[in-house]
Amino acid sequence: MTTPTPPPQSKPPVDAAQHEELLVKLLSSLSNPRIVAVAVDASENSEKALDYTLVNIVRKETDRVVLLNVRAVPVPPFDYGFFAVDVGYAIEDCNKLTSRSLLQDLARKVVDAGVDCRAIALRGDARAEIVAKVEELGAVMLVMGSRGMGAIKRTVLGSVSDFCVHNANCPVLVVQPNGPSTLLDA
Q: Where is the signal peptide (predicted)?
């Protein structure tokens, strides 16, 4: 007599929401930390926003930086059956590894500065995901970099920072690409 075998485990649909929190060593056991969220990507402007946050905003004794990175949902242009699904998963796996690596590198920088840190990889539309996660976290501030787009590009392409400024439930600081790096430089 043979025992029935369970059906093979399948991967979740490529467009399913998937959020992943990376394990980051917390420096202390803050009972009720003030949460400062920093939206990050692989751009220089994003790293400048994080640097600005570490120098000018966070208090090591009471604050925790929460890094947020949003990766896009891969959408194959055409449905070629099984092949299209494989391409979608390959793109998703690559995006996930890139996001994880970025968050680990930036979290190391935060911890090295002596600040508590969490790192969360999000997936979907950057605007909606950031606003929702900031609200869920109860962040007191969201800091993000600006790509420096002009008004026309911002209107056509949409601006993540502009959306967050108008829709987040906390103050949003957009660090300009050519702005001062510290409050003393202003």
A: none
